[in-house]
Each structure stands twice: as C-alpha cells, then as structure tokens.
Amino acid sequence: MALVVGKDKATGSFAITFADIDLNDGNQDSVSIDGDNEEIEEVKTNVSSSGTSKRKRKNVQESVVDEQIKFVGEQLGKIANALEKFTADKTPHLYEEVMSMGEEGFDDDFLCSVFDYLVSHESEAKAFFS
C-alpha cells in the first residue's frame, strides 16, 4: 500500500537519493555514536558558560546604553534651559529702560520710536543693555 500511495519516500532535508549521498561527505551536523560521556558533559558545560557570558555581555551593553541615554537626556535638558534663557521675552524690560530715559528730557514720541527700533533690531537692543 505504501508503494501505491507514495509514502515510502522521505521529505524535506531527509529526502536524498543515491547520487546525493556522495555530495554530503562534509556534513558537519552528524554526531558520532562512539563519543565519550566526558566529552559530551564538557561540551554541555561550555555551552552553558557561553550562554552565561553572553547574558553578562548583554547586561553590560544594556547598562552602557542606559548611561548614554541618561547623559544625552541631561545634555538635552541643558540645551533646553539655554534656549529658554536665550529666547526669553526681554521686551518689558527693554520698554522700562527706554522709557526711563524720559526723565533725562527725551520726548515720549522719540522714546517710543527708539523702543520700536530696538525691538526690530535685536543686536542693537543687546548693545543697548550692555
């Protein structure tokens, strides 16, 4: 019955013909049956210790990455603080400084035009404060 249905043939990686047998001389997956139990235990020990060292390496790598992420976060915080200081609205302070010059005898219309000019020219406003 197996010959009629065709279930006598192997499938997948086990399906080889007589011509294929000579091609697989360098098969590295084969295991010798005459092996020593001590060698097998040694291989098992090596495999388990390499798994442990890989796990340790992964934990060390993760901690290094975590430290780097923390450092980058701190640096971004410093940059954000610097940008806030840089872009802080200094217009009210500028207005007070310019209008305080009215006590020195300058006309209010002139001081308003000076204020408008300094608001539109930031570099001159910085020089005015220094």
Automatic annotation (TrEMBL):
Region named Disordered: 41-60
Protein name: Uncharacterized protein
Organism of this sequence: Gossypium anomalum
